[in-house]
């Protein structure tokens, strides 16, 4: 039996997002977000579910922090709901919203849990969407004002900031594939929005430097990993395009000050799509960051197939184990992704800001025996360790998620939590994975 050891200063944590757990969507002066609108539009979310109540963490945050404390994590990644701070996106500040997050952060600090705050986890104020949303460059200005307000208010309390969560999802998944809010299906729109999200990120980085240069800031792109089926040029190029859509498209601008030329050319030739770059944009986007978050869940083997999707690629089914949401369990892809990022961008500090699995085990005799989640976490965390041993500068790991929650377009059907939520009673029940993770954190090692 092999033992996996982690550095003593490795940061173990758990992660959540505001719209997925808070509820209280009409309390405390909060304005509506695009997810309130999207989820209340018939056909967008399974079962017609909404985040109106979710886990009710807005009211039960102290109970949730007790769960974090007992779990033994040293960090908690959460997000601020922009419409709690500026109900109309900009203009009048809602002090009640700021006060709520101060109570949350103060309680975390009192329990020796470091807050890691995400500014944008997709709940754009609906008022800004009504003015064009992220397609409108004025939304970047509104985001910068929102960011500066949060930075000033929490200076000295929060030392780790994440600007944008998963810009690929907030642009392409939401505005090209139409699966998430606001639900459009326009590749040029999605490409424009992706650029504006990166600009908003860069502006926020520059603003933090002026307000609190002792704090650290980064962003949290998501990426899967496609492994080429063969060494054929067609397979290799198809996989390069598919991986590049998540990796290079949202990382090259930040680290190299340009979009990947091979994908720029592909978008232009295949779809007539261009990036609306204005003078000075790339300098803003490539503002120096302190770390990068990586969100990883799945991957697969893939090969070229003419006419299959935007990139002419077929994902092959090698009879993978799959999580309950249908995603292949592909831990080798995690390792390969992390090595690739190091090779492309150097020794950038990395936090794994999301990694986890959907298994929908229920409560039986007061217990949740989610053995498949434990198995998933074991092998994925082992591959984080492999990457560390291979020289990747990984500083910490945030399990997704602390709680079962509102899983976006899947509603409440899909469960990623270490803690089970009964969405009728809101009772919290610790799963076996919670106790396994607690044991890992205590020992900083485990047996494969």
What this model shows, in words?
This protein is of the alpha/beta class and 448 residues long. It has one domain: Glycosidases (TIM Barrel). 41% of the residues lie in helices and 16% in strands. The chain has 16 helices and 15 strands. The strands form four sheets. The chain has an eight-stranded parallel β-barrel, surrounded by four helices. It has a three-stranded mixed sheet with strand order 7-9-10, sandwiched between helices. β9 and β10 form a beta hairpin. α8 runs antiparallel to α9 and α15 runs parallel beside α16. The radius of gyration is 21 Å and the shape is globular. The chain starts with a strand and ends with a strand.
TL;DR?
41% of the residues lie in helices and 16% in strands. It contains 16 helices and 15 strands. An eight-stranded parallel beta barrel has the order 2-3-4-5-6-8-11-12, surrounded by four helices. Strands 7-9-10 form a three-stranded mixed sheet, sandwiched between helices. A two-stranded antiparallel ribbon has the order 1-15.
